[in-house]
Design a protein that fits this description.
It contains four helices and three strands, in the order H-E-H-H-E-H-E. By secondary structure, the protein is α+β, with helices and mostly antiparallel strands.
């Protein structure tokens, strides 16, 4: 005689989940009953401009505007703050976005010309930025 296979139980679409199952799932996900799980915010990163005494201010402002999308007056203020205090935060953003912005800045700096963007007695543009993870 052939083996009899039972049909799976019928699932009612609007029936709430079994409380034991919900509790087990909540424990696996690290949340308690009735507690809403908020999506984790990605860590934020600060892009920091470092002062150097060989890059012309207009070029620094141009890089801030093109690579980091800082508006004209803000770009000039950021450049002056770095010049006076040694460094200045350009923007705070996600790591992926910061990496993309830094790459654009690196490309601009690599194409910089002595006498036009920085003093000609210097072998290459010394304009520098760094990333710093922001803590809460």
């Amino acid at each position: 005689m052939p083996e009899t296979i039972e049909a799976p139980p019928k699932v009612e679409p609007n029936k709430p989940a079994d409380p034991a199952f919900k509790e087990m799932l909540g424990n696996l996900l690290g949340k308690k009953e009735g507690e809403k799980q908020e999506p984790a915010e990605p860590p934020m990163w600060a892009i920091v401009l470092h002062n150097d005494n060989t890059t012309f201010p207009d070029f620094v402002t141009e890089v801030l505007m093109e690579a980091f999308r800082v508006e004209g007056n803000s770009a000039h203020r950021t450049m002056m703050l770095a010049h006076r205090s040694g460094q200045a935060v350009v923007t705070v953003t996600t790591k992926d976005r910061a990496d993309t912005m830094m790459e654009v800045a690196r490309e601009m700096i690599a194409k910089a010309e002595g006498g036009k963007h920085f003093y000609s007695h210097v072998p290459s543009c010394e304009l520098a930025f760094s990333l710093r993870e922001e803590t809460k």
